């Protein structure tokens, strides 16, 4: 392409020197950034990895962009060196030198071969000209902008992949190590796949973590969540959704294994306690059966509930639990003990309620006896214990309450009559004359 003249007014020497200084500083900054990108750990990992999926596609694009970056940088370096050579010819640059420098520094003076520049299209990088041209011309300023764009997109890809690789595989490895320890512990207490749900969970978590690690290593960009509104390279965070879910699942399994271990440590003590509870329930039922016979013999006209025998199924389950303990089948013993403990407590409560229901008539009789004696003591404190009328009613009530079978309804009425007679005497006004007791009784 021929030169048609400098773009715009010719620059003076001070403008040329300032432009060269600015372009030189940009050259150093770009070179530093390119060398840092070249040595970036993420880039080296990407070059040596067997990539798949979106990471494979984007790395092919990024590699092409990095190659184009160095091509642009070399062209930029040559152009800057040429401009510096012209400026250094003489201390006071001539009009012709200044015109040439103006063209170099402001015009589209940098030519890049079409094959190199066309790579940008392959790499999905932005281009200023269509593909298929033999060459492309850029100004130094435009070339700097192009390099900045390519650098930002390439760095974003490298930083993103490196961030995922730095975060997830190490965490997966730590979780896998914890998984192995949990598997060994589970095996020691009989929690195995196909025999216990927790064993199946451990098997599933193992497969999931193995697959997750392979996917993260080969396609890290598939596990990246970009921050909304962020344009900075690497703006976002690794996607740990699957990892977090499996970590929670492993924690649930570990708690279940801990519960099984607790069973192993406390099994004998819990079995002893279960035997004691069931024994107390049996003794209580036996006491209720004895009490029922006593009630039927001593209390008349009373409906007494039937007392059932102890459930044999609980004793059978208790024997099964003891068998599990002898054979160290802790994963089976754990749920059985929990079920048995609840059932044993329910059985003891049922036995106590049965005893209470059976002995209620005896309790009613005891309450009537206590009430009768309490009123007799009250009458005695008031000097009325020898009253023949009260003695007669007291004896009638006492015969009913201390004879068998006792009719509680009739006995209750007799006690009530004695209470009423005693209350009447205690509240009636006293007559000082002798024989007053017989007179007051006649008045009633």
Descriptive notes:
This protein is mainly α and 444 residues long. Helix content is 74%, strand content 4%. The chain is built from 14 helices and 6 strands. Helix 3 packs antiparallel against helix 6 (140-188) and helix 9 runs antiparallel to helix 10. The radius of gyration is 51 Å and the shape is elongated. The N and C termini lie far apart (147 Å). The relative contact order is 0.07.
Total beta strand runs:
6
Going across the biggest sheet, name each strand in turn. Answer: 1-2
Quaternary structure classification: single chain
Shape: elongated
Order of SSEs: HHHHEHEHHEEHEHHHHEHH
Sheet having the most strands: 2 strands, antiparallel
What are its keywords?
444 residues, mainly alpha, two-stranded antiparallel sheet, two-stranded antiparallel ribbon, 6 strands, disordered C terminus
In short:
With 444 residues, this protein is mainly alpha-helical.
SSE map:
Layout: H1 13-39, H2 41-48, H3 53-87, H4 95-106, E1 110-113, H5 114-122, E2 135-138, H6 140-188, H7 197-218, E3 224-226, E4 236-238, H8 241-298, E5 299-300, H9 312-326, H10 330-358, H11 360-381, H12 388-401, E6 406-407, H13 408-427, H14 436-443
Parallel strand pairs: 5-6
Antiparallel strand pairs: 1-2, 3-4
Helix pairs in contact: 1-3, 1-4, 1-6, 2-6, 3-4, 3-5, 3-6, 6-7, 6-8, 7-8, 8-9, 8-10, 9-10, 11-12, 11-13, 12-13
């Amino acid at each position: 392409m021929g030169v048609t003249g400098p773009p715009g007014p010719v620059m003076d020497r001070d403008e040329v020197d300032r432009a060269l200084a600015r372009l030189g500083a940009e050259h150093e900054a770009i070179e530093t950034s390119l060398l840092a990108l070249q040595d970036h750990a993420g880039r080296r990992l990407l070059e040596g990895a067997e990539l798949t999926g979106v990471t494979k596609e984007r790395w092919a694009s990024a590699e092409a962009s990095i190659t184009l970056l160095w091509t642009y940088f070399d062209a930029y370096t040559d152009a800057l060196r040429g401009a510096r050579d012209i400026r250094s010819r003489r201390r006071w640059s001539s009009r012709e030198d200044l015109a040439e420098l103006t063209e170099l520094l402001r015009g589209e003076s940098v030519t890049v071969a079409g094959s190199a520049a066309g790579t940008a299209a392959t790499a999905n990088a932005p281009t200023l000209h269509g593909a298929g041209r033999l060459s492309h011309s850029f100004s130094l300023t435009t070339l700097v902008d192009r390099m900045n764009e390519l650098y930002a997109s390439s760095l974003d890809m490298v930083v993103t992949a490196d961030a995922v690789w730095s975060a997830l595989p190490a965490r997966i490895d730590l979780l896998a190590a914890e998984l192995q320890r949990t598997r060994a512990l589970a095996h020691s207490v009989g929690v195995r796949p196909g025999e216990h749900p927790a064993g199946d969970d451990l098997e599933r978590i193992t497969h999931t973590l193995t697959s997750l690690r392979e996917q993260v290593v080969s396609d890290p960009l598939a596990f990246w969540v970009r921050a909304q509104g962020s344009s900075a390279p690497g703006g976002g965070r690794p996607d740990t959704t699957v990892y977090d879910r499996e970590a929670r699942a492993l924690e649930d399994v570990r708690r279940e294994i801990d519960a099984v271990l607790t069973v192993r440590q406390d099994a004998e003590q819990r079995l002893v306690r279960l035997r004691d509870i069931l024994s107390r329930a049996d003794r209580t039922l036996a006491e209720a059966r004895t009490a029922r016979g006593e009630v039927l013999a001593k209390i008349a006209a009373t409906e007494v509930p039937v007392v059932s025998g102890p459930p044999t199924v609980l004793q059978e389950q208790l024997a099964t639990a003891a068998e599990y303990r002898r054979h160290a089948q802790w994963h089976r013993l754990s749920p059985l003990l929990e079920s048995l403990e609840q059932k044993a407590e329910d059985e003891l409560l049922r036995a106590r309620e049965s005893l209470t229901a059976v002995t209620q008539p005896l309790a009613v009789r005891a309450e009537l006896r206590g009430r009768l004696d309490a009123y007799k003591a009250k009458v005695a404190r008031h000097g009325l214990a020898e009253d023949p009328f009260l003695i007669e009613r007291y004896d009638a009530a006492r015969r009913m309450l201390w004879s068998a079978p006792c009719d509680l309804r009739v006995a209750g009425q007799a006690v009530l009559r004695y209470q009423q007679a005693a209350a009447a005497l205690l509240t009636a006004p006293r007559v000082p004359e002798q024989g007053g007791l017989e007179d007051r009784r006649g008045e009633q």
